Amino acid sequence: MNGIRPSALAPLILLALGACGAPFGDVWGGHIDAGLRVQTLEQEALRRPPYLIQPGDTLSIKFYRNPELDTELTVRPDGMISLPVVNDVQAAGITPQALGEALETGYRGELAVPDVTIIVTEFGGQRVWIGGDVETPGEFDLTPGLSLLGGIQKAGGFKDSGRVHQVVLIRRDGEGRARGTSLDLTDVYGGEHPERDIRLQPYDIVVVPRSSIGNMNTFVDQYITRMLPGGGVWAAFIGGL
After folding, report:
1. Domain coordinates of the chain in residue numbers?
2. Which label site among 136, 152, 185, 204 has the fewest CB atoms less than 10 Å from its CB?
3. How far is 241 from 239, CA to CA, in rounded Å?
4. What is the pTM of this model?
5. CATH homologous superfamily of 58-122
6. Contact, 99 vs 53, CB < 8 A?
7. Strand 178-183 vs strand 205-208: parallel, antiparallel, or unpaired?
């Protein structure tokens, strides 16, 4: 083979295979769990989950076959709404469709054909949480168009010890489960590829870690249960784990 011994090709083949899809190494903390990989910031890669009702949301509740029961309610801080017959009903943390189905079940026996639709007419202060190694971690209003890097800057920016190349975005997936994604913000933060920044969604949690993350599932669970405040808009998020 042009003078190259087969034995000399083996290291090259192994090196090529190792570069294809292998988990990334961490120069500070060693090898990272095989399930955690570097990702570029692609808008399409993060699927938008269905909206979950939150405390403070205003709901228009329509009974199409019994319009005399139509009403408009604000979800209480405890996540409940109150209606005749069914009394208190959990609203926060579920989709409008799921709430409509729960009301149809509750009114069965009282109405011949319960047919309920829920429309969110006002959103009760959409929030995001920015934490970890930023200057002023906490809860922030989700202003229109707020991006991942913009949210970090809103929280005072990265501390010197913050890992720009391993920012964690925690977001509920299409099935309502909290999922953590490791994102490399180096090119966005440095200005080389600002177009790769992504928009934050309601109740996203952004964490700038200080040290290497060995297991994403453990990190997400521990961060949510230990760091998020237990009340307010985060009560439903924590309760859904």
Report:
1. 24-41+125-239, 58-122
2. 136
3. 6
4. 0.55
5. wza like domain (3.30.1950.10)
6. yes
7. unpaired
The strand pairing partners of 59, in sequence order, are 73, 120
pLDDT at res. 97: 95
What residue type is assigned to position 167 of the chain? V
Interatomic CA distance for residues 198 and 20, integer angstroms: 26
Residue 178 CA to its chain's centroid (Å): 6
Q: How far apart are CA 61 and CA 221, in angstroms?
A: 34
Q: Between β-strands 205-208 and 167-172, what pairing exists: parallel, antiparallel or unpaired?
A: antiparallel
CA nearest to 199, candidates 223, 180, 175, 171: 171
- CATH class of domain segment(s) 24-41+125-239: alpha beta
The answer to whether residues 79 and 90 touch, using CB atoms and an 8 Å cutoff, is: yes
d(CA 179, CA 140) in angstroms, rounded, equals: 20
Q: What is the pLDDT of residues 33-65, one digit of tens each?
A: 334 344 444 444 455 667 888 878 899 999 999
